[in-house]
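Quick one:
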Amino acid sequence: FLFVLAVEVKIEVVIPEKERSKEEMSPNGKASPLVYKVNGTARHYHLEEHPIASNPYHNPKDVVEASVCHVKDLENGQMREVDLGCGKALLIKESGEFHAVGHKCPHYGAPLVKGVLSKGRVRCPWHGACFNISTGDIEDFPGLDSLPRFQVKIEKEKVYIRASEQALQTQRRTKMMAKCISLSNYNLSSTNVLIIGAGAAGLVCAETLRQEGFSDRIVMCTMDRHLPYDRPKLSKSMDSHLEQIALRPKEFFRTYDIEVLTEMQVAAVDIKNKIAIFKDGLKMEYNKLLIATGNTPKALSCKGKEVENVFNIRTPEDANRVVKLATSKNVVIVGASFLGMEVAAYLAERAHSVSLVELEEVPFKKFFGERVGRAVMKMFESNRVKFYMQTEVSELREQEGKLKEVVLKSGKVLRADVCVVGVGAVPATGFLKQSGINIDSKGFIVVNKMMQTNIPGVFAAGDAVTFPLALRNNKKVNVPHWQMAHMHGHIAALNMLAHGMEINTVPYLWTAMFGKSIRYAGHGEGFDDVVIQGDLDELKFVAFYTKSDEVVAVASMNYDPIVSKVAEVLAAGRTIRKRDVE
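Output:
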């Protein structure tokens, strides 16, 4: 079955000896982002940016040059990780030309040599981010930074790479950005761009505007008390501190004049007068508006739901508190959602007991199908997680105000010191009800391929929207995942600047449990069959989700880079037939 895909996307990898990078690193690797300042609104920037001087090789000591291979050592379509003494680079040969860029994905440090090379870009094997091999620029997400690009020269049949030590060591490059011109002239109650929500969609929108040379005022507001952080980390690595998961340091926002109003809730939007009205009475005029409010977790509706030590995990404080309370105690998790399952996996070795309550008969059945769901369930059971399936919670009982027991509709009573609720979420769009912005029956904001709502100048992005997915014949879908939120924010920003850019990306997501990852690409909603290759019992498999004769999604475990490979085929607009993978 790999043969078919290999024909579509040719890749051969040369793997270095010691390379198992740590996948669950901080959101943007360990290095702090390099910061570049630029004034004015020029849109085309120098390829090899450098934080200090315009000449990238101002300090000869900072530059290394090394012969890395013979020209015939690499075939077209091959990648190789090469060592320059003080750091590594990724050497790529495509269409007879050599390119050299950073070798690690800036998102979580994945080795790109194990990724997928296709038509001028390399796709990360772990989470699907894509980078242009000529410029190093990020072209699909997740992550915020691009790769450093290095000079390649050929002399006497040998390939040489010339690079700055700093770039080799940081393995990341922040794109050049404009700054705001004379902030002091602004009236506090008006802004050019207002972004409601400070998740991935909001932040990427603000950064894209600055990268494109936009030099007017940008204000982001959030109900959170923190600057943007890596929210998917909260359930995967629950004792992370804020500084470990912050998407950008405080100085970044100051440097690029991206104003963030924390603990500020918008209560209504007056689209006629272009004014956002905050809960505390503040009014702010805007020219362009992005709504990226995400979703609100559903609460339990049972008796005793107000008891202490029952959590929805929304903030780093929530996650940290749950770990503290759960250590050596009894935990009940309600809902075998991605959040519920990740929390169960994280707490399994820390808590005295972990019980998981779910209405369905198998976890992830609707998403991954019954067979994959059962294999995952078995992995959890072998790690001491007890499942109570096809039932729900009827009551939470307390002792001295704190949670003591969880009573199930089946009559079973579970001991519980802490309860985590992961039963889904609803879009956080209640404040838009009377606004005139088009919202569907489930509360999602309806946007077109340019992330525009029905109101001119008003855009929406992230978990709260439905948009036309090219992959599924422009069916309106909601894709509440991290990569997609990044892309939505990027597309919205380009269209605020009238670029006429339509979204055309393949959804890509991942979940991490017990040190293992399931990767997933495509949109499998409504699949009618699953073709599985490999061994489910060994947790080394790839599952192709098909609808009639077409592969609409793929999931894998311990089978890299198959999901990235399929994502590249789908991104190229090609169809994979069921018979191709059977």
